[in-house]
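Fold this sequence, please.
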Amino acid sequence: MALAAALAILAGCVSVKMPAPAPSAGNAEKLRTAKLVPSQMGSFKLAAGKPADMDTSLSGLRGSSVSPAGGSFAGQLRDEIAAELGAAGLLDAKSRFVVEGQLTDSMVDAGMSVGKGRLAARVQVRRDGQTLFDKEVVAEATWESSFVGAIAIPTAINQYGALYKTLAGKLFDDADFRRALAAPGS
């Protein structure tokens, strides 16, 4: 993805589609050792009161753009969490436990010297309609950027994409999330 974006940037503005989420070895291992019960994925949507375009487009890329694989950044996050849970054998469409959420922030800035990105979501775990976990999880990154767009923009796109795995990892590390999905006897 980065090479294609870099080549397109040399020719002008670029529009890049994020790849479909794939599990990471680190998050899958983290989940396997956590002794959690399987859960199903509920809806992930834009949080109430947020601008509708926050779920479908990013500014801060100097005229270039990134779009989510399925048309929604909230859906991209849902698919990321589902991919991680699935790789650890913890995804079950018939589970009484449901993981759902609302996208509360999504931004990237390919700054002239420092780039920054932020992804945040309020995530809930429910069992039989009862809320067991409800917390905002935030992933942020800063990196050295460049005045040269052909360097700064692909870096910003890659850094933003990595925030999805970072946010999922922070969710899986959260002690309250683990308690909500703890297997009996663990």
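The longest helix spans residues 149-173. The radius of gyration is 17 Å.
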